[in-house]
Amino acid sequence: MTEDLTPAEPYAAALARNAEQVTALAPFREMYEFGLDPFQIEACQALEAGKGVLVAAPTGSGKTIVGEFAVHLALTQGRKCFYTTPIKALSNQKYADLVKRYGADKVGLLTGDNSVNGDAPVVVMTTEVLRNMLYAGSQALSGLGYVVMDEVHYLSDRFRGAVWEEVIIHLPESVTLVSLSATVSNAEEFGDWLDTVRGDTEVIVSEIRPVPLWQHVLAGRRMYDLFEEETDHGGRGASRREVNPDLLRLARTENSRTYNPRDRRRGKMIREADRERERRQRSRIWTPGRPEVIERLDAEGLLPAITFIFSRAGCEAAVQQCLYAGLRLNDDAGRLRVREIVEARTASIPDEDLHVLGYYEWLEALERGIAAHHAGMLPTFKEVVEELFVRGLVKAVFATETLALGINMPARSVVLEKLVKWNGEQHADITPGEYTQLTGRAGRRGIDVEGHAVVLWQRGLDPDHLAGLAGTRTYPLRSSFRPSYNMAVNLVDQFGRHRSRELLETSFAQFQADRSVVGISRQVQRNEEGLEGYREGMTCHLGDFEEYARLRRDLKDRETELAKQGAAQRRSQAAASLEKLKPGDVIHVPTGKFAGLALVLDPGIPAGRTNGHRGFEHHDGPRPLVLTAERQVKRLASIDFPVPVEALERMRIPKTFNPRSPQSRRDLASALRSKAAHINPDRHRKQRSGAADDREIARLRAAIRAHACHGCDEREDHARWAERYHRLQRDTKQLERRIEGRTNTIARTFDRIVALLTELDYLRADEVTDNGKRLARLYGELDLLASECLREGVWEGLAPAELAACVSALVFEARQADDAVAPKVPGGQAKAALGEMVRIWGRLDALEEEFKINQAEGVGQREPDLGFAWAAYQWASDKSLDEVLREAEMPAGDFVRWCKQVIDVLGQIAAAAPKENSTVSKNARKAVESLLRGVVAYSSVG
Q1: Cα separation of 792 and 845, whole Å?
Q2: Is 405 exposed, middle or buried (0-12, 13-18, 19+ CB in 10 A)?
Q3: How many C-beta atoms lie closer than 10 Å to residue 290's C-beta?
Q4: N or C: at which end does the chain have fewer Cβ atoms within 10 angstroms?
């Protein structure tokens, strides 16, 4: 079609091609077999122009290409690039990818477990490692040109999110920041903040999935499409998608159907034919079993698949169910290849440990192409599963939601068994963000034409709710940033208190809080304009009407107060009179639905008073059970007795009286009427109002009458304007209090932390004391507790294994609280030291309460958990893996993870502890050596 072009157009195209050839992007693009997407090109061009970038795109869209371009730029320019990730597994994976591309000499790895070539120009690390480098002023930061923050939306994480903001705030200005995020609904807001703290930042948002995603519901033998016509294919078009009417009809039918053979229809049992038809209808719809789901997906060519089960035990059970069902997804060649890879990757693990770890059962499932993936597994086992899945040798993985966090394991299909999961406190619906994250694994770029998300039918499933989850692709990024003790001493040491406070006010948390104040501030401005108009309306030519209105309001408030006091006094008198009632008293119920004569059957005294009614407890005073003259047995409440009540007469209640028997009630009510119908109850005389004798009311009334405005002809008009003025002024003050509560919240928390640290002699004004310098080297949730233990010499003289047990209490947190059984701990000095740690924590907890430092807001020291002390002690004492795991009743993966966290903190303690006249530093290093063996020491880089 070149004949249709004007002579200038080919020339312009040639110029554009020549211009691109001289950029760093051109040779970078040639490294990939596929072309880059527009959002990737836009982000790379912004980076090459010297701008920072925020890229928000769906899972699997290839946003890491932008991070890899930052690596390419750094190497081209002779500068360094740090590539940060939220989890060690993702760091290991990214390290392997970059080594494959650039060679092992140019790429390093720094995580809590591994240190490989840390001086390389490109270093992959966890975000915490970079944060620690920044506070320590590490020499490795010299020459740093780019920092890639993969999965930057982690800053919403309640426990670790603050680290991301610390890094972003404290990175040198010369460093270009590359932020890679899942699709979030407030990317522009986050970009505005990055622009504020980091300078010129380009925000690139892509909603388009590279592989279209189809949504299904599997019910019985039928796979229903969730949407009737899915023309936008997961974000490619703009047409509106309607929920499949067949699915809606199924949900209505199934969710309304109740099958109960004892149901009555027109007074008769359901006929056998009806029940048979009911059974036939029900037999078409059921929740398919796990092996059945995998077989169905295999038959339709939808494997490999990841099935998300929100339970570790559920994942393991699913694998066993598939094995028992005889499921085999690999041929003979595949089985042999699996065995080769597994044996090579586990060759360093001793045979006795393999037996303990359930290796042979795990291998059998892998050979069949089936595996579980969860945090309770040994890291090596998880990595093998990931490798085999990517190679296509494992085709069905049953995983917890942790697999969705960054690990590169794309599948053709994703299955969700349920839309409810345990969030640590209760079973809650998964959020649209979680649904997007989970289903984002479906569809492998360059392999699959489309991805599939399958939700299993469950009784009560609402297709409209599911469509809402599937249609809401974004979720808001919310800062979880809170100052900590370690952060406070590091900031003060580097910048002083005043500058530190200013830095904290630049956090994304404060940025969001300030933005939320903007709307309230506008309302305050509108209110103030309204107040000015109301003030004009109540202006009186005779005097100060605002003062006159205040007197009237004070009078009304005083009268209301006295009325409340009188009502409370009457309720108290009435309650006291009810407490005096006894069974057999005849009373007159003054008001309410059951007003009139009544016989007290049970006085209903609350538990703890006199001889209260057994098994019946009230929290709002006596509630007598009575028989009315109309034969009704009712339990009355204090509201039925606005005035005191007295017994008019006494009656004997027959021992044979049964309140449930109509005959018993009729006979006793008849006797009640005969006994007391002629008695007229004394009318309760109304008490004199307290206002009549109140001096303050008399003073206010006199002041009102004497005021100049009292004689104004337009007094009531002015009063109406004054009342509006008062209401609007009250509302405005409430809004101002809300603004005050949200403004400078982070800085105020910092001030309280600094005050407590000053009290404990960690800080003196802008000076960090020796105690503070020790705290600055301790990172973790219980940083201050660890520092206080070092200061008080709690761990002096402990053997390495005993020290490991004590340090475990600083990191371990039980998955589920179990207060019923005290955890087993080592005896002797270790037990005494653990007790002393709890005592110190109690003192710190009291101090935090005094300084208004609130643990519920994510600030402060939780109680140390002794649940891992015995396991850490045993392992550091060279006990076998079998013995340690059996006594700990803990999965191998959890055991390894906690050991590595203990090792991490022991390393910090070794560096922070005094080097002279102290055994702690030396024994901490020995404890690390004792723990770092067997399954804990197996390298996870390979």
Answers
A1: 17
A2: middle
A3: 24
A4: N
Per DSSP, helices labelled H in 184-311 are 187-198, 245-256, 272-283, 290-299
Structure tokens at 579: 């407490």
State both tokens at 401.
Answer: 């939601």
Cα–Cα distance for residue pair 507/479, rounded to 1 Å: 9
3-state secondary structure of 371: strand
Beta pairing class for 596-602 and 585-589 = antiparallel
Q: How far apart (Å, rounded) are the C-alpha atoms in residues 157 and 300?
A: 38
Q: Report, in this order, helix, strand and coil percent for the chain, each rounded to 5.
A: 50, 10, 35
pLDDT value of residue 730: 86
Whole-number Cα distances in Å, 453 to 9, 284, 459, 468, 881 = 45, 22, 19, 14, 40
* Digit-coded pLDDT (tens) for 123-155: 999 888 898 888 888 888 889 999 999 888 877
Place of tokens 């402060």: 860
The terminus-to-terminus CA distance of the chain in angstroms comes to: 52
Q: If you compute the radius of gyration of the chain from its CA atoms, what whole number of angstroms results?
A: 37
Nearest-angstrom CA–CA distance, 928 and 932: 6
Check residue 172 and report its DSSP letter.
-
DSSP secondary structure of 760-775:
TTSEETTEE-HHHHHH
The tokens describing 777, both together, are: 């080297």
Contacts of 289 (CB under 8 A, 6+ apart): 321, 325
481: which 2 tokens? 């940033």
Q: Name residues whose C-beta falls within 8 Å of residue 112's C-beta, 6 or more positions apart in sequence.
A: 88, 126, 128, 129, 900, 901, 903, 904
H, E, C per residue of 48-64: HCCCEEEEECCCCCCCH
pLDDT digits (tens, 9 = 90+) for 562-604: 888 887 888 888 888 888 888 999 888 888 888 888 999 988 8
Q: Which pLDDT does position 370 carry in this prediction?
A: 92
Question: How far, in Å, CA of 177 to CA of 191, rounded?
Answer: 12
**Rounded Cα distance, 37 and 63, in Å:** 10
Q: Which residue has the higher pLDDT, 813 or 336?
A: 336
